[in-house]
Fold these 3 entries.
Entry 1:
Amino acid sequence: MATKRSGEFNWRLELTHPSGRNWDATYHGGAVLDAMSELLASKDVEFKQDRARGDRPHEPAYDGNRAVDADIPPITTIRRF
């Protein structure tokens, strides 16, 4: 989608994939269809990879952080002399 509101200097380009991924860009000039085509061509690899995955939504990245809970006893070290 390409939008330009009255008084804005740049076009706002947005490319949305069925899997839910979005890519935004801005463009200034008269050849907005060429700019949109270039954005689509630059994301061709991502579109093909998503199509191979069945256009499923991407899994959230693994978060290695762990919640700190007051109910968990502290870890004590064993001292060897």
Entry 2:
Amino acid sequence: MRAHTRLFAQPSRSSKELQDLEPITTIMFSPSACTLLTDQLTVKGQSQGGLLFGTSVGETLHVAFASGQGHPWWTSPPPAYPHIDARYTLGWSEAIQATSKGQYDWVGNWLAYSDSRHRELHEDLALLHLGLQDGLFDDRHALVIAGMESGYLYVHAYLYDDGPLQLVANGLAGPLITNMP
């Protein structure tokens, strides 16, 4: 479980297993994850974020569930994004692992700007680099920037492997992809 790896320094996969994984090029969202993101984006005036849970199959990262960030009064002052609360992340991760019988794990984080709209690429990449410094994002764990336009959810998704990689994602750039394995 990634949360255990991150918080307790317990390896979850061997280096051999990691070498055999195909590079991720596409991200897909379940209807449940899309609903949570859409609902969260109706709240304007503050930056938001949360956790993403799912699995990778071949070249596709499947996001089955999304969570909110947690309660803002847990940290004072509110942390800069991207940020995770260790207790919140561990609780969600253990609950998802138990209810999915180990099928899903923490696969990334989502963020939204305070007006729920997208910004320029360089602003997204600045957030990606902040998360890289904290070990949140890599070639298997995505940063998703969510936004709304004309009443539709759209996302920009990024990984990092020897440089930033933008994933093909559901949203305005293509059809809403919601098939889960």
Entry 3:
Amino acid sequence: MRAKARRLAAPGPDPRILPYGTPAISYLLALAMFAGLMLCARAVNAPPLPGENLGFPTGYAPPPGAVRLVQAKLLGEVLGPPGGACMLEEEALRIGGGSFSVLASRPDGVVLSWAGASTAAASPCPAGVPLLLPLVAYRTVLGWLPVSSDRR
């Protein structure tokens, strides 16, 4: 007896694969990774919170190199319009010491208050007056903070 020959047929389409050949799970994973990266970028670039302090201990010598300056705008009040300009100099902040306190975050920058020694040799920022720094300049000043040996 001869066995009946089976007719071969092509398998039906896989329901997990989209019509153009890419599995749907790939798109879901890519979307989830994109959302995760966007959340991380937002957390890293978040503006500072009011009440944060940036301390410059006295006596830290600045690293050798060019003098780095940042321009700040003087404010009459925290939410007021920007007025005249003053300078923040890395060398003066490191040698004289003092601290910044974050008063507010605004769309045009960060409002800080300085308490300490002179902030620059020419046109220093007065202590206790609200200062407006653009977010890029604020991040520059964060880079000037001395790193203690236990954080290296």
